TrEMBL record:
Signal peptide: none annotated. Belongs to the KHG/KDPG aldolase family. It comes from the Bacteria. Homotrimer. Keywords: Carbohydrate metabolism, Lyase. This is 2-dehydro-3-deoxy-6-phosphogalactonate aldolase. Pfam families: Aldolase (PF01081). It comes from Falsiroseomonas frigidaquae. GO terms for molecular function: 2-dehydro-3-deoxy-6-phosphogalactonate aldolase activity.
Length: 202
């Protein structure tokens, strides 16, 4: 499946910052059971490659598992080596996009300006992460989508929760990266499942 298919099934990307490997299975089960099948473990989490390996082994083709906060192109091969199939960056670096695509991975790099967006798409990005979204607005997204190639999927990330999803959705958001509104370190599977349900409703 490509990014379009994953987001059509559910437009939410769970950003599991701070996830520990011993929690990965329980949290992953809760999310996938809730219908959220794109799971991102930021590289500034404890032992992120181990968590990605556990999630990728358990969910295989049922979830798109990968890494966030990727800033070094060389990390793409390491992430692919443990079964990761998704690369998300906090910044606009075409070199990371090219490295991810060379590994056959889906890549959603971060951007904030039209110039960054077009450079990333030229490098092969599958979608774009509008970050930090709380510094922008749904009106900004609507204006960007008017000039980006038709069908470009832009995912606001940063401060996204059940309350503001509808406004971003109305502006044309192709999906959403959800951080603390879906998982905070210390949350158990039941808490994550409850938050996931509220976000799915939104």
């Amino acid at each position: 499946m490509d990014l379009k298919d994953w987001l059509a099934a559910c437009p939410l990307v769970a950003i599991l910052r701070g996830l520990k490997p011993e929690e990965a299975l329980g949290i992953g089960e809760a999310l996938v059971a809730s219908g959220i099948a794109v799971l991102e473990v930021p590289l500034n989490s404890p032992s992120p490659l181990e968590s990605i390996r556990i999630l990728a082994n358990r969910f295989g083709e049922d979830a798109l598992v990968g890494a966030g906060t990727v800033t070094d192109p060389a990390d793409c091969a390491r992430i692919a080596g443990v079964g990761g199939r998704l690369i998300v960056t906090p910044h606009a670096d075409p070199a990371v996009v090219r490295a991810a695509k060379a590994e056959g991975m889906i890549c959603i790099p971060g951007f904030f300006t039209p110039g960054e967006a077009f450079a990333l798409l030229k490098a092969g990005a599958d979608g774009l992460k509008l970050f930090p979204a709380e510094a922008g607005s749904p009106a900004m997204l609507k204006a960007l989508l008017a000039v980006l190639p038709k069908g470009t999927r832009v995912l606001p990330v940063g401060g996204i929760d059940a309350a503001n999803i509808p406004a971003w959705r109305a502006a044309g958001a192709g999906g959403f990266g959800i951080g603390s509104a879906i998982y905070r370190p210390g949350d158990d599977a039941a808490a994550v499942a409850a938050k996931a349900a509220a976000l799915r409703l939104a």
